[in-house]
């Protein structure tokens, strides 16, 4: 359905198909695979006991305070406005069982965890955060929204910028740094404009430089290997 929005020339022809795709995705993909719990307390106990969630941030609040934060989120009649928004969240952000068969969170759950975690036990701040988040006054950076509260996670950092100089030693150093940064959950940007182009001279010998493509392939393989368990 979503593929029917744009014709073969790239022109938008039927935006209603996006809404049909959204409804179909939520009904046929998300709803059957969303793990159900009788109470919020049962759900949070399951997520902590099975090491999906950290325990420290939740222990800073009492049960009523945690319930209030979730209630604020769920009282807001939020719905995804596009298919891609819903697909992106459930594909990349929502916590899933380790076998990837079930979703353990909704969008409102993820926001509630962010509010509780980053308020660091201050209930009033947590209430302010969840209201701002569910009203979409602001959205945390991708690593923050994705990783917050999870037992096995990367860091809350958005990106790192590295500079590669034109030497084999530095290329190896950049490759190692990039792998380590990706492992802890950081996005990595690398400036490779200092590298010599393909065919340039090395030590006075003309036409032997391999260029930047080989370096890019090396980095690509490293990032695919150290992919934050994704």
UniProtKB/TrEMBL annotation:
Family annotation (SUPFAM superfamilies): PFL-like glycyl radical enzymes (SSF51998), R1 subunit of ribonucleotide reductase, N-terminal domain (SSF48168)
GO BP: deoxyribonucleotide biosynthetic process
UniProt keywords, alphabetically: Allosteric enzyme, ATP-binding, Deoxyribonucleotide synthesis, Disulfide bond, Nucleotide-binding, Oxidoreductase
Reactions mediated catalytically: a 2'-deoxyribonucleoside 5'-diphosphate + [thioredoxin]-disulfide + H2O = a ribonucleoside 5'-diphosphate + [thioredoxin]-dithiol
Superkingdom assignment: Bacteria
InterPro entries the record matches: RNR_lg_C, RNR_lsu_N, RNR_N, RNR_R1-su_N, Rrm1
Keyword field contains Nucleotidyltransferase: no
GO CC, one annotated term: ribonucleoside-diphosphate reductase complex
Ribonucleotide reductase N-terminal domain boundaries: 1-78
Domain Ribonucleotide reductase large subunit C-terminal: 157-230
First-tier enzyme category under EC: oxidoreductase
Limits of the Ribonucleotide reductase large subunit N-terminal domain: 80-153
GO molecular function, one term: ribonucleoside-diphosphate reductase activity, thioredoxin disulfide as acceptor
Pfam families for this protein: Ribonuc_red_lgC (PF02867), Ribonuc_red_lgN (PF00317), RNR_N (PF08343)
Entry EC number(s): 1.17.4.1
Family note: Belongs to the ribonucleoside diphosphate reductase large chain family.
Function comment: Provides the precursors necessary for DNA synthesis. Catalyzes the biosynthesis of deoxyribonucleotides from the corresponding ribonucleotides.
Protein name: Ribonucleoside-diphosphate reductase
UniProt source species: Candidatus Phytoplasma solani
